[in-house]
Amino acid sequence: MQRCAMSLSGMNNQYARREVFCGNTCHDLKRFWEREIGKQTYYRESEEYRLGRSALRKLREEWRQRLEAKLRLQNGPDEAKKRANVGR
Is the separation of the CB atoms in 66 and 73 below 8 Å? Predict the structure, then answer.
């Protein structure tokens, strides 16, 4: 196994290692972090999917539409009547 020396000038030796292993260890570390990133991406996407299907989101959207309709009636009752007559 090869070793790559790493300079630690200005770093606290208590929290730093003097050597970093290279070769297979670097490849293993890369694979490990790629898997971790993949897991986090999967969890985030599944959470977004779950939230997209939630009843609370649907209720909020429904209330938003109701409020917009109410504001439209308050701001322009003539315009709302015209829209209602067009549909007939």
Answer: no
Beta bridge partners, 21, equal 3
| Residue 83 in tokens | 């829209």
- Each residue of 62-72: pLDDT tens digit? 999 999 999 99
pTM, two decimals, is 0.36
φ/ψ region of 23 (left if φ > 0, alpha if ψ in -120 to 50, else beta) reads left
Establish how many alpha carbons lie within 13 A of residue 4's alpha carbon, considering only the half-sphere containing its beta carbon. Answer: 8
* C-alpha closest to that of 2 among 28, 24, 17: 24
What six digits make up the tokens of 22? Answer: 């290279």
More confident residue, 85 or 80: 85
What is the distance between the alpha carbons of residues 80 and 65, in angstroms, rounded to a whole number? 15
